[in-house]
Specification:
Layout lengths: L3 H19 L3 H21 L2 H34 L2 H35 L6 H30 L4 E4 L4 E4 L2 H5 L2 H31 L4 H36 L1 H7 L12 E8 L4 E8 L2 H7 L9 H26 L5 H10 L3 H5 L13 H10 L4 H30 L7 H9 L3 H15 L4 E3 L3 E2 L9 H32 L11 H9 L1 H4 L5 H5 L5
Length: 542
C-alpha cells in the first residue's frame, strides 16, 4: 500500500522547492522591466545616449534573468497534472482558465516582445522601441496577474460551487474570480515587492561602480532612478502590506491569528505583538511585548471589531467539522441515487462545511463515524505551526524597514549632492542586494504555509489533492529538480556577476568612459566640429 502521508509531503516539498526557485527570478523580471521603461523614456525625451546605454546594459541583465525565469516556470505549472492530479480534476474548470491566460501572456506577449527589445534597436525608431519595452513590462505584469488570480482563488474560492452530480467544483462567475479581493491585493503587493527587488539590484550594482570610481556618470544616473523608484515601491509595499493584513483579517482569520500568535480573542481593538516567543504547547506567547490597538486597526479597520483568537477559531472549526460530517452523509445519500428534494435540501444546507468534514479522511475512511479523538486531531490540523508564521512575518517587516531606510537615505544624500562621501551607505546598498529576495520568499511562506491544511481554503484538504504516485518516483524527480535548478541558479549568478563586473563600458569597443565623453560634449570646439566624440575617445579621428 502506498504511504499517502509520504506522497503528500514529498509532493508538497517538490512544489515548494520549484516554486521558491522560480520566484528567485520573477521579482527581478517584474521590477527591472519598468525601470527599463523609465530609462528609455528619458532617452527618448532627451536624446542623451547615456540613457540608451543604461537601457541596453540593464536590459542585458534583465534578459539573462528572464530566460532563467521562463525555464523554471514551465515545469512548475506541469506539476498540477503530475503531482496534484486530483486537485486538477476537482477544480480544473476554475483554475485552468487563469493558467491558460497566464501562458498566453508569458509566451505570446512577453516573450515575443523581449526578442524585439534586444534585436530592434537598429530596426525601430526611438518611440517604437520604447513602445516595445513598455509591452515587455506590461506582458510581465499581466502574466503575474493571471497566476496570482489563480493563487488568490485558492485562498478565497469565490465564483464557484460544488456540483454533487459531477463531484467537482464548477465555475459560476468568472468576474468574481478575476476581481477576487485576495487576488487583487496579492497582485499589487507582489508587483511592488518586485519593484523593490529590482531597485535594490540596480542600486547595489551602481554602488559597486561608485565605490570603485568607475563609470560614475552612468552609475549616478542609475542610482538616482533606483533610489526614487525603490523609495516609492517600498512605501507601496508597506501600504499594501497593511491592506493585505486587512484582507487576511476579513477572509483568512486563521492566517492572521497564526502569524500574530493571537491565542485569545482580546477586547477590541487588539494590540500587536512586536516581540515574543510563541509557546504552542501552553497556547500562549512568552515574553510578549505589545503595542496597543495596532492589530485591531490593521485587521478590522475599526476600533470595535475583534480579532478572533486561535482557541476560539478552533472551537468554530470543530462545529464546522461536525457539520461537515453531516454534509458528507447527505452527499453519500445523493450518490446512492436518492435525488429527492429532501435529500438535496439536506446537502445544500450543509455543503459549505463539506471540506471540513473531508479533513477527517486523513484519520478514517468512515467520515460519518469519526470519533471525538479523530475530530480533535482534525481540529488541530486546521492551523499551521505558529512559530514559523510568527517569525517569518516579523523578519519580513524588519527587512521592509531596512529597505525604507536605505532608499530614503540614498534619495536624501542624492538631492543634497553628498552621496560620494557616504561610502558606508554605498556598501550597505551593495551588500543588501539579496535581502529583498529573502523578504519575498518569507512572504510566500506566510501565504502558502499559512493556508495549510488546505489546497483550496475550506474546500479541499491538501492530503486529498495529491496524485497516486510511488515515493521512489517523487524522490527521484525531487533530486532531479534540485540538481537542475541549482545548476541554472549557478549559471545565472556566473552570468550576472560577469556582465555586472564588465559594466556599461562593455557595450562599446575600445576604451569608452562617459566622464570623458561628457567633457568632450561640453567642449565648444568639439561641439562646432563634425567629429564624433566617441571616435575622439577611441582615437579614430585626429
Amino acid at each position: 500500500m502506498i504511504p499517502i502521508d509520504e506522497v503528500v509531503n514529498l509532493s508538497r516539498l517538490q512544489f515548494a522547492a520549484t516554486a521558491m526557485f522560480h520566484f528567485l527570478f520573477v521579482p527581478l523580471t517584474l521590477g527591472l522591466a519598468w525601470i527599463l521603461v523609465i530609462m528609455e523614456s528619458v532617452y527618448v525625451m532627451t536624446g542623451s545616449p547615456i540613457y540608451k546605454d543604461m537601457t541596453r546594459f540593464w536590459g542585458k541583465l534583465f534578459g539573462i534573468n528572464f530566460a532563467m525565469g521562463i525555464a523554471t516556470g514551465i515545469t512548475l505549472e506541469f506539476q498540477f497534472g503530475t503531482n496534484w492530479s486530483y486537485y486538477s480534476h476537482y477544480v480544473g474548470d476554475i483554475f485552468g482558465t487563469p493558467l491558460a491566460l497566464e501562458g498566453m501572456m508569458a509566451f505570446f506577449l512577453e516573450s515575443t516582445f523581449v526578442g524585439l527589445f534586444f534585436f530592434g534597436w537598429d530596426r525601430l525608431s526611438r518611440v517604437q522601441h520604447l513602445f516595445i519595452t513598455f509591452l515587455v513590462a506590461l506582458g510581465s505584469s499581466l502574466s503575474a496577474l493571471w497566476i496570482l488570480i489563480a493563487n488568490g482563488w485558492m485562498n478565497n474560492p469565490v465564483g464557484a460551487e460544488f456540483n454533487y452530480a459531477t463531484m467537482r467544483m464548477e465555475l459560476t462567475s468568472i468576474i468574481d474570480v478575476i476581481f477576487n479581493p485576495v487576488a487583487q491585493v496579492k497582485f499589487v503587493h507582489t508587483l511592488s515587492a518586485g519593484y523593490v527587488a529590482a531597485s535594490m539590484f540596480v542600486l547595489g550594482i551602481s554602488s559597486f561602480y561608485l565605490l570603485r570610481g568607475r563609470d560614475t556618470a552612468f552609475a549616478l544616473r542609475s542610482f538616482a532612478i533606483a533610489a526614487g523608484f525603490g523609495l516609492a515601491a517600498t512605501l507601496s509595499v508597506i501600504v499594501l502590506g497593511d491592506e493585505s493584513g486587512y484582507t487576511a483579517g476579513e477572509v483568512n482569520k486563521v492566517k492572521m491569528a497564526a502569524m500574530e500568535a493571537e491565542w485569545h480573542t482580546e477586547p477590541a481593538p487588539a494590540g500587536i505583538t512586536v516581540f515574543g516567543w510563541p509557546n504552542e504547547k501552553e497556547q500562549r506567547t512568552d515574553y510578549a511585548v505589545k503595542i496597543p490597538y495596532v492589530l485591531g486597526l490593521i485587521g478590522t479597520r475599526s476600533v470595535d471589531k475583534q480579532i478572533t483568537g486561535i482557541i476560539d477559531l478552533k472551537k468554530e472549526h470543530e462545529v464546522r467539522i461536525r457539520n461537515g460530517m453531516l454534509a458528507y452523509a447527505a452527499l453519500t445519500r445523493l450518490k446512492s441515487g436518492d435525488k429527492s428534494p429532501e435529500a438535496i435540501a439536506a446537502f445544500d444546507k450543509l455543503k459549505n462545511d463539506l471540506g471540513f468534514g473531508l479533513l477527517l479522511k486523513k484519520y478514517t475512511p468512515a467520515v460519518v463515524d469519526a470519533t471525538s479523538e479523530q475530530i480533535a486531531m482534525a481540529v488541530n490540523d486546521t492551523f499551521p505551526k505558529i512559530a514559523p508564521m510568527f517569525w517569518s512575518f516579523r523578519l519580513m517587516v524588519a527587512l521592509g524597514i531596512l529597505f525604507l531606510f536605505i532608499f530614503s537615505t540614498s534619495f536624501y544624500f542624492l538631492i543634497r549632492k553628498k552621496l560620494a562621501q557616504q561610502r558606508w551607505l554605498l556598501r550597505l546598498a551593495m551588500y543588501s542586494i539579496p535581502l529583498p529576495w529573502v523578504a519575498i520568499e518569507l512572504g510566500w511562506l506566510l501565504a502558502e504555509y499559512g493556508r495549510q491544511p488546505w489546497t483550496i481554503s475550506g474546500i479541499l484538504p491538501t492530503h486529498l489533492s495529491a496524485s497516486t504516485l510511488q515515493p521512489s518516483s517523487l524522490y527521484f524527480s525531487l533530486a532531479g529538480f534540485l540538481l537542475f535548478y541549482s545548476f541554472l541558479f549557478v549559471i545565472e549568478m556566473i552570468l550576472m556577476v560577469k556582465y555586472a563586473r564588465r559594466g556599461p563600458s562593455s557595450l562599446h569597443t575600445g576604451k569608452y568612459h562617459w566622464e570623458i565623453l561628457e567633457k568632450i560634449q561640453s567642449n565648444t570646439a568639439v561641439k562646432n566640429t563634425d567629429r564624433d566624440p566617441k571616435l575622439v575617445i577611441e582615437g579614430k579621428t585626429p
